[in-house]
Amino acid sequence: DGRFKSAAALRSVWPPLIASGQPVHYCGSGVTACHNLLAVAHAGLGLGTLYPGSWSEWSSDPARPQAKV
Length: 69
Description:
Blueprint: H1 7-13, H2 15-18, E1 24-25, H3 33-42, E2 49-50, H4 54-59
């Protein structure tokens, strides 16, 4: 229905994903990853970390190796 799951339901999903520490959330541009941050906070599992540049910043670095096909 377009709303977040309850905090209890989210707590049942997120812990296995963050068991090794607080993950850094990213997506294509940093916007969609904010939904993950909000869900983790709503579940009471901390604030999380956002890589705001996300994939578009990381992939645009000319110093990164590129595969040639």
